[in-house]
Amino acid sequence: MATGQRKFLIVAVDYFTKWVEAEPLATITDKNTESFVWKSIICRFGVPKIIVSDNGKQFDCQAFRDFCQEWRIEHRLASVAYPQSNGQAEVINREIISGLKKRLEDSKERWTEELPSVLWAYRTTPRTTTGESPFSLCFGAEAMIPVEIGVQSPRVVHFTEQNNEEWLRCLLDLVGELRDKAAIRVAAYQQRVSRYYNKRVSPRPLRQGDLVVRNSAISDPTGTRGKLAPAWEGPYKIKRVL
Asked: Which superkingdom, per the lineage (predicted)?
């Protein structure tokens, strides 16, 4: 458990740009969920047209429905017991957890301290689907990352206020084209992924003596080990095939 007894993480991701917002919480309630949407989404990016969420009580309640209705937000609930129906959020959750695991090692209680670094890395890294970073799709320019300061990238070496102003103005003029190209890449990527997985689907028989790993959720169905625990355990050897 992190400082302040914060053990929950509420996450929101923009469907197109892949920009992610996340906030550690001690409890998940309708009040702090509304506060998160207000502070991290509406006050920063404006009122969204649609919010897709899971079926948690903090979302599937009258208070949150009233909140969405007040702001004319269409609220959609994902299919029960089918996380893939809100696949974008599930992907982000996995990436955040993976990034935290790499940084924490045995100090799991420090996850709230490492979270901003994980989010920063995600926001400034080009995504496979769009070919652009979430930062550039949101703001029209790439962020100045720490490594550019140490290594002295060309835009740092040749920086002048006049050149920088002209460069930013040019990027803002092209941001619409940048987003159009990203949308085309997303559509093409989805088609490639669909063809790839359709080709790969084939039966995989298991035989006696094979080594396998087991999903940790089977031995820990209540999640007492926490989400930062390894997702798989083993290997185990198959003694008998039924």
From this structure: Eukaryota
